[in-house]
Design goal:
homodimer; alpha+beta; OB fold (Dihydrolipoamide Acetyltransferase, E2P); eight-stranded mixed β-sheet; 16 helices; globular
Amino acid sequence: MYRTHTCGALRIEQAGQTVTLAGWVQTVRKFGSITFVDLRDRYGITQLLFNESLNAKLDAQPLGREFVVQATGTVNERSNKNANIPTGEIELLVTEFSILNKSAVPPFTIQDDTDGGDDLRMKYRFLDLRRNAVKRNLELRYAVNRSARNYLHEHQFMDIETPFLIKSTPEGARDFVVPSRMNAGQFYALPQSPQTFKQLLMVSGYDRYYQIVKCFRDEDLRADRQPEFTQIDCEMAFVEQEDILQMFEGLVKRIFKDVKNIDYTEQVKRITWEEAMWNYGNDKPDIRFGMEIANLKFPKHAFPTRNAAVFNEGTNGAEHAALASDFSVFNSAETVLAIAAPGCSEYTRKQTDELTEWVKRPQIGMKGLVFIKCNKDGSYKSSVDKFYPETQLKALADAANAQPGDLVLVLAGNEERTRKATSDLRMEMASRLGLRKNDEFKLLWVLDFPLFEYAEEENRWVARHHPFTSPKPDQIEVMINNEPTIADASKYLEHPYSNIKANAYDMVLNGNEIGGGSIRIYQRELQEKMFAALGMSEEEALHKFGFLLGAFEYGAPPHGGLAFGFDRLCAILGGSESIRDFIAFPKNNSGRDVMLDAPGPIDQKQFKELQIKLDLA
Amino acid sequence: MYRTHTCGALRIEQAGQTVTLAGWVQTVRKFGSITFVDLRDRYGITQLLFNESLNAKLDAQPLGREFVVQATGTVNERSNKNANIPTGEIELLVTEFSILNKSAVPPFTIQDDTDGGDDLRMKYRFLDLRRNAVKRNLELRYAVNRSARNYLHEHQFMDIETPFLIKSTPEGARDFVVPSRMNAGQFYALPQSPQTFKQLLMVSGYDRYYQIVKCFRDEDLRADRQPEFTQIDCEMAFVEQEDILQMFEGLVKRIFKDVKNIDYTEQVKRITWEEAMWNYGNDKPDIRFGMEIANLKFPKHAFPTRNAAVFNEGTNGAEHAALASDFSVFNSAETVLAIAAPGCSEYTRKQTDELTEWVKRPQIGMKGLVFIKCNKDGSYKSSVDKFYPETQLKALADAANAQPGDLVLVLAGNEERTRKATSDLRMEMASRLGLRKNDEFKLLWVLDFPLFEYAEEENRWVARHHPFTSPKPDQIEVMINNEPTIADASKYLEHPYSNIKANAYDMVLNGNEIGGGSIRIYQRELQEKMFAALGMSEEEALHKFGFLLGAFEYGAPPHGGLAFGFDRLCAILGGSESIRDFIAFPKNNSGRDVMLDAPGPIDQKQFKELQIKLDLA
């Protein structure tokens, strides 16, 4: 061993001992005939003191930043203590040292606040990884990994490895494929998830399975997606939805405790998908703050179970007489949504104009923004004063649950866009008001997703979660007893499949989906019906998923599970929304590893062995 | 939850309690008006008793093998106890039951001793996995995984994930490649190991890294190889070979303790590669038994440091006068090797003939076998009596360390073949004599491998371990100061590189290499010299490994590591030499997953997106 201690280990208690350290030179500071060197390793920094006697040797072998040095000496109490670091009370009075390896001048200094920009960081990732900021992220990642494994182990889960070279069954995302040399003309696929394997393991009786495992999707990379990513993948047999929710909120609470020392003792809040869409405008609401969306007028077909918004009368959709007005924007809009921004009633004209510009940006795409100031004195002031008398403004503000001092922001238009815009505006206002705190963590279960979406262009149903998700038990009959085909695609909402809810659940943390799963279909007949609903022929279903359908014939137990997005979970726990800094060697948005310069060309010999060639467009 | 207890949980202490179980029907036994059902899950088997009152219901819903059943009832003390299973004192007096899922008749019964043959097992792997034998293997695998992680965690190792989509750098084995859609005409490779990444992590200061990780090699599959396999991959910085040996023999001892409850307290034996070849004829000797190989005559060039075998005189190679004889087989042979099979002196003619046939099989390839019976009365009897008088037979037997009662087996011929044949014969005799016990475990470190082998056809050096392995510290100068090129390939043994020993080590368990590694090169100049020795041009080295050479310029610490073959380690601990039964979903010898029917064809759309096409020979 090149050292007796690490650079984070020594304390005043070791004063007088002779020790050997090894590490990297962080800084060199000369003061006349003595030199201080901060020596760094994974565990910390220790100050080395080179006094007069070593001067000649130091001059002959000068130390530079990032040199790798071994130093032996005596642990000394410092005269100038540094309370900011754990080793700050001591220094090493060096008696011998050697340079284990030199370093060129790094392209950026290895410090918390200098990273040289994204391109340089990625090219020199091995240097970037030395920075404290990145190191802390990887340490956190390992801590989450360890905590999850411990919890799952204690709950009888078994880590069982599933294969990486599998079969391409394009459903949903695009597969990465691997040409097979031994089976010319054929390809493996890399798994998008171990979904079917973990279900087979349930059929095999393994009962409680988990894996922290790489998955692959060949998708165009939106910001903060990676072609390879990691899941905490879990499955249980003989369970109902409630068992899964209990087990895995327990897992996340354990991670909070182990990694962040947070006692998350309250039961995780649960809302339905419909409530999420209704109250937050999206299916992964951030509930660290309120500002719930008020539906002032809503399209009849989307939420048939809802009734009464200020512009709707009961469920018959007639205009609310009390709010009759000439304001055609609201009158003609499909939907009108509002939020009450707390304490913003005194926004200036400049501020409200700026917000109006914000919602008109192409990414948001609204035509304008109506606001109602709920003054602290109980009066109301609005950008649509001339259409609505104060009593009507009050009715609108009340509907938005506004308090005196709040600013009500109202958006109107096409349902889907308006809902998304209001959701975005809610998040934006929360950011501006400091309500999205990195160190506050709010979990949420979103339940009862629709089983299907309808792809109008393709005139077929699409599985919202995936084709293995079970409908709610009381809706299995609806699925079995109705043919999935629809003559008129525009009337899909009238088809009974539209209303089938899935036994599916997402776990949301601070407005990010960190995990999701479902109770699975385990009956061959129902699974075949599902494949048919998705437009798969019997032959296609057998070709792609014959092994699973076959397995369901030999005693498949009821089962379900979920998968956590490990990269994202770590990022959020680390107070970041970028997963890239929590991955040791990430790829850029073109799927390239710029350090390796991969992907790259292959040899002619490889093409020949694989019996493929390029066919560039 | 569908159950209150598992099928392995109930004991006499629970008698009287009302419980619910769920599991698979193992057997149904009817006795008049009552029926016994063995219900099985991952945790065990519990006997269900259906009495008269449930008869009508059972007749209406008959239970078959592998049906999935939920049963509620009262825990009863059995009249007929079964001491062979932990739940054998009780049974469940069923009051209610339901069939959760039916099962077709399985293609083989789910029992320890019936597996339906290899093809059927693999096609119905989900049923095969239900068998106790396979389940125990996967449980052992998980136990090894858990034990390794715990040990490494306690020793400050961090699990850091390295990428799967990397760059193809064909060196040694063949890469699997993955066409990149976003970078048309370019390919990723799947990692053969995370070798360069773990070295970069050392450069980055992570100090102690591990991963239990899938690796990929596109090789023609010899028996018991898999195209994807798992390594326990480890690396440490600031270490010398001794540190690595200590750390990782500790790991294996910990696994022995946790998984097999074996206290392996003695220091693991160490031998050099040369001793292994000399005494056992191979580099992964099984030391559960002796029968070391005696070198009666050996080629001068191969072991220049050895001297004196019975047919060699000193180091000058002259024939030993005392053994002069007309026996041309020994006289003309390049090498003569012998083992003494303990207690076999009374082998019959039939037995010795059979052994002679065994060594003449094409897989062994020897022309014949000479034997010397060391009779218990002190006399000697041999198949070459007419060439050697008894005193000479005694000299040969003594050289082979034979005791009275042993049978000396002598092989002669070309060095390489004879050495391998003697090694094989040694293993065969040990098997026949019951000396290779599945429940005995003997570890061995093999050290000081040659750094290079010479590929005469290509006229270049080949790294015996891999190109990142460091020479012994005192031989670095030999490497740096000599040009690798050789004018006359046949004289490669005279080149100084022939004698360079690597700082490399293999861990051997019961005659299997379970792990191997090395201290790495961390100096750019030495690494460049290594690439040059392997026949790589500077451009090629930069193209393939520029990132690593670059990293070595910025303060690379001394480091080293090793990787365990996880599949093989599990198999040996499980008392098997076949890794396939320790992998949940293995591939066959053509690299196919017969359950999935993978690999398979891909869609035209996929070809088009990837801009490749088939080019079948």
